[in-house]
Structures are given as structure tokens and as C-alpha cells.
Amino acid sequence: MVQPVPALPAAFPALHAPHASILKDGTRVLSRPAVRADLDEVNGLYRRCSAESRRARHLTHRSEIRPHEWERMVDVRKAITLLTATTTTPDEVIAMTNLIETDPPGCAELAVLVADAWQRRLGLGTCLVRYAASLAVLHGYSTLTAEVGATNTRMLAILRRLDTSVPQNTSSTVSITVPLPVRHAHHDEKQRR
Ligand SMILES: CC(C)(COP(=O)(O)OP(=O)(O)OC[C@H]1O[C@@H](n2cnc3c(N)ncnc32)[C@H](O)[C@@H]1OP(=O)(O)O)[C@@H](O)C(=O)NCCC(=O)NCCS
């Protein structure tokens, strides 16, 4: 019988390679795993975001990421955090993507924050959600979840395209569950041959 691969606790080698994407206007961006020393850059992103965007990301008023939260976001045993910058201005973070392991086992919660100047129809949020979903599969997660504001049409549109049925909202937030394809050990074995 084919056994699903359990979630991988350690950072996967592929995760360390920056992931390149080209936005709809031709801008080249790289998304790389965050490290503990990146907190100032991340809070720079938060300062460049509107209060509305930060609220949409956290579903509450937020002005920054606190050190104890950051520790959790960069703990590679339970989280994957990606920072995105353009290839021309690599020091300015324009987006952060978080996958954080949650209960029950095999679930990872997804959240994305794109700086206001980079939002809307350039496709950055779409690229990041798709890449995060592929990383979640690679790490053996079976389910992606997201808590999204009921009026957040952009994020809901992105998630809808991940082969998920977005439930009708019954409150101010929508809880999304995306089943992920299971990575099978025998398939990986075949790939290696
Ligand atoms: C939600 C968010 C991640 C989306 O990222 P983005 O880069 O702005 O989105 P994209 O450019 O990929 O657009 C996604 C889709 O939303 C829809 N969309 C984009 N702009 C829109 C607008 N002005 N009006 C209505 N729909 C719009 C479209 O369907 C679009 O895709 P398409 O143009 O290919 O059809 C980003 O706006 C963001 O960070 N917002 C604040 C934080 C947040 O809401 N996070 C999500 C909660 S976890």
C-alpha cells in the first residue's frame, strides 16, 4: 500500500533556493525563506502597508510583527515564511507569505501580505499563494487553511482558483480549507530512479 509521506520537520533543501516569478508588468521578483535577522525588514514592509492591508492580513489592528511572533514564523520545524523583493531592489521587502503548522497534524495555515504599491492585478498575491501551496505539498502537508475577511474579494478570488470551494460566509470572516495532493513515497522513489 502506498504510504503518505509525513510532514518534514527540517528545512527542505529546495526551500533555500530563492523562487523567481515574473509579474504581469514584467517585474522580476524573488521569494526567499526568511531568517531570524529579517525582522526589521519585515517591519519595514508593515510600515509601507496601509492599516487596511495589515488589518486584512491579521483580521485585527496591527502595526508590526513582535519578536515572539517572528520567532514562531521563522521556526523551520513548524513554519515556512517567505520574503519577496524585486531583483532590482533586493533589500526592500514587498511581500511576506506565511505557512504555519496548525492542529490537526498535516494542516498549515496560509497568510499573505503584499505591500499596497504592489497589490491589484500584477498577480503577485496569486504567484505567492500558488508557490506556498506547492511548498506545503513538498513538506507533506495535506491541508491548507486560511482565515479571510468576508469582503476580501481579492484573496477569496485567489483561493477559489486553487480548486477549492469557498464556503458562503456566515460572518465577517471565511474559513477556507484547501485539500492538497498527497506526496507519495513510491512516487518520489520513482522520480529518483
Ligand atoms: C490579498 C492579496 C494577497 C492579493 O494579492 P494581489 O497581488 O493584490 O492580487 P493579484 O494581483 O494576484 O490579484 C488576484 C485577483 O484578485 C482579483 N482582483 C485584483 N484586483 C482587484 C480589484 N481591484 N477588484 C476586484 N478584484 C480584483 C482578480 O481576480 C485578480 O486576479 P486576475 O487579475 O488575474 O483576475 C493582497 O492584496 C494583500 O496583501 N492584501 C492585504 C492583506 C490580505 O488581505 N491578505 C490576505 C489575508 S490572509
UniProtKB/TrEMBL annotation:
Pfam families documented for this protein: Acetyltransf_1 (PF00583)
Superkingdom, taxonomy of origin: Bacteria
Domain N-acetyltransferase, chain residue ranges per copy: 29-181
GO MF, one annotated term: acyltransferase activity, transferring groups other than amino-acyl groups
Keyword tags: Transferase
Protein name per Swiss-Prot or TrEMBL: GNAT family N-acetyltransferase
Lineage of the species this protein comes from: Bacteria, Bacillati, Actinomycetota, Actinomycetes, Kitasatosporales
